[in-house]
Design a protein that fits this description.
- The protein is an alpha+beta fold.
- The chain has a domain of about 350 residues: Methylamine Dehydrogenase, Chain H (7 Propeller), CATH 2.130.10.
- It is built from 9 helices and 28 strands.
- The strands form 7 sheets. It has a 4-stranded antiparallel β-sheet, with no helix packed on it. Strands 2-3-4-5 form a 4-stranded antiparallel β-sheet, with no helix packed on it. Strands 6-7-8-9 form a 4-stranded antiparallel β-sheet, with no helix packed on it.
- The longest helix is centred in the last third of the chain and has 21 residues.
- The relative contact order is 0.09.
- InterPro entries: WD40/YVTN_repeat-like_dom_sf (IPR015943), WD40_repeat_dom_sf (IPR036322), WD40_rpt (IPR001680), WD_repeat_GAD-1 (IPR051858).
- Belongs to the WD repeat GAD-1 family.
- Pfam families: WD40.
- Keywords: Repeat, WD repeat.
């Protein structure tokens, strides 16, 4: 940790020098800067669906916005072409039947990372159309116990994010107790696998993860942080093996409570965490193991995707507050509504500003865009609420307010005094007669050939013969007509005298050797059995 401390202290000295040089500014300007002006004077409500919105992302320039939720729909909005109806230009389901947990633009906004309740994350192109899938993470082998030997996750994903420095690298965490780093240049398997361990040395589920954000001083750019189900926050340095953590706080949040979000400040020295134990905490990386700098309790959170975000000037934090259910409410009589909370970074004990949500909705995802100076938030009833200030904000949703929805082309309607029942009956009768005529026409009805009623001709077999043998026999029989009164025995015996006088087949063969015919003598049944060979006798 010496290299990290030296870098931090050098940056502190530089900041102190800059602060001393700028201390001679006018006191009036300082007083104006101390007055918090939040872009919350106006708001716009956009309807996504009816289920909870768990994903929200915008590109770096703030020209596009993507939302996703429990219904599996991903809607894409373009502020440059969208009118005041606020309709998305594309709606798809990238993961059929799966809850969307994280959607994020890459650093150059040409790719989109989609993490769902599946084991495989997807990377799609900017338009999410055509051959949209650029990369799909491989699936890990479910029969391999060692997580380092599997090519991918084998349990449900919880979160994913892009690297702020490398446009081809992203990170995912899963219920298989690992954090995996992926690269589009190496698609066969992950480039690194980090196993999260509990205090007892057992594997523990990872609920969220984050890269260190880009900041001015360039401090801690190699750090990777993860929040675990045992309440610990574990941080690794990528320049070292991922065997041991570089920074570790075992009891950052309550055990068996989901750490729903981790977010680095823009100066790179502080880390904010949000958990379902209803707390928001701020940590200093220079004294991470000593405990949090400040915290706020009793901020109800019942969604695993509730996040925390820093303001563009790095002075404030924003997060969402969930509405309590009847079980969580108990005997409390306090106001029970969802809120958007804004905290001062130096003191988190009490929010600086609270914005209540209508329709009994809970705030899940929040984002304060640094260029637009607009605050985006999603709710559990499928709405996106965008806060802005007409004087302090620019572009984004402001460019859509004055665009009127396109009018649909109107067709000239005409009226006619027509008896529809009569027309309908005539139409039915005409259709019936037309079908009847078509049935009588052998060509239109495609009637099969009629079977022949005589001998075969023109390549067709006769009526009675389905085989060639039957056909030939039938034709032979049809050629000669027989008299039913003829006696077959007399017809055969009239050839007996001719056969004796002019033998042709059998008699000439025995004329010299055996001229006299010898017939077999009559044998009784008993004698016949004796003549049969023993092995041919039938067994009783």
């Amino acid at each position: 940790m010496d290299y990290l401390e030296n870098t931090i202290y050098d940056d502190q000295n530089t900041e102190q020098t800059n602060a001393d040089s700028s201390s001679s500014s006018d006191s009036d300007n300082e007083e104006e800067d101390d007055i918090p002006v939040f872009p919350t004077s106006s708001s716009v409500l956009i309807q996504h669906g009816t289920k909870s919105l768990s994903c929200l992302t915008t590109d770096l320039n703030g020209t596009r916005m993507i939302t996703g939720g429990y219904d599996g729909d991903m809607e894409m909005f373009d502020f440059g072409s969208m009118d005041s109806s606020f309709k998305p230009f594309r709606t798809i389901q990238p993961c059929q039947g799966k809850v969307l947990k994280s959607i994020e633009y890459s650093s150059n906004a040409d790719m989109i990372l989609i993490v769902s309740g599946d084991c495989q994350a997807k990377v799609v192109n900017r338009e999410a159309s055509g051959k949209q899938i650029i990369y799909k993470c491989p699936l890990g082998d479910g029969y391999v116990v060692d997580m380092n030997r599997t090519k991918g996750h084998k349990s449900m994903l919880n979160y994913g994010c892009w690297s702020p420095t490398d446009k081809n690298e992203f990170m995912t965490c899963s219920d298989d107790c690992t954090i995996r780093l992926w690269s589009l240049n190496n698609r066969e398997q992950q480039i690194s696998c980090i196993r999260t361990k509990s205090e007892q040395g057992h594997d523990v589920r990872t609920t969220t993860c984050t890269y260190h954000s880009i900041h001015q001083n360039g401090v801690n750019t190699s750090l990777v942080a993860g929040g675990c189900l045992d309440g610990s926050i574990q941080i690794w340095d990528r320049r070292k093996p991922f065997v041991h953590t570089t920074f570790l706080c075992r009891h950052a949040h309550q055990n068996d409570e989901i750490i729903s979000s981790l977010k680095w400040s823009y100066d790179g020295l502080h880390l904010a965490s949000r958990s379902t134990d209803h707390t928001l905490k701020l940590w200093d990386i220079r004294m991470f193991e000593k405990g949090c700098l400040s915290s706020c309790e009793n901020i109800h959170n019942r969604f695993a995707m509730t996040n925390v975000c820093f303001s563009p000037n790095d002075r404030y934090l924003i997060t969402g507050m969930s509405k309590k259910t009847n079980v969580d409410l108990g005997d409390e009589t306090d106001e029970n509504i969802g809120k958007l909370l804004i905290f001062d970074r130096l003191d988190l004990h009490k929010p600086v500003e609270q914005i209540s949500m209508m329709n009994d909705s809970s705030v899940i995802r929040t984002f304060w865009h640094p260029k637009l100076n607009q605050i985006f938030c999603t709710t559990n009833n499928g709405c996106i609420k965008i806060f802005y200030d007409t004087q302090k904000s620019m572009n984004g949703v402001l460019s859509c307010l004055n665009r009127q929805p396109k009018k649909q082309k109107q067709t000239n309607d005409f009226y006619a005094n027509i008896d529809l029942d009569a027309v309908k009956s005539n139409a039915i009768s005409s259709i019936t007669s037309r079908h009847r005529k078509q049935r009588q026409d052998p060509v239109q009805s495609k009637r099969p050939e009629v079977p022949t009623d005589s001998t075969g001709h023109d390549g067709r077999l006769g009526e009675h013969g389905s085989t060639l043998h039957q056909h030939i026999v039938k034709n032979i029989e049809l050629r000669k007509v027989y008299d039913d009164k003829e006696d077959p025995r007399e017809e055969i015996l009239k050839y007996a005298q001719i056969a004796e006088e002019q033998p042709f087949y059998v008699t000439p063969a025995y004329k010299e050797t055996q001229p006299n015919t010898i017939f077999q003598a009559d044998v009784d049944e008993d004698e016949e059995e004796e003549l049969v060979q023993p092995w041919k006798k039938q067994k009783n």
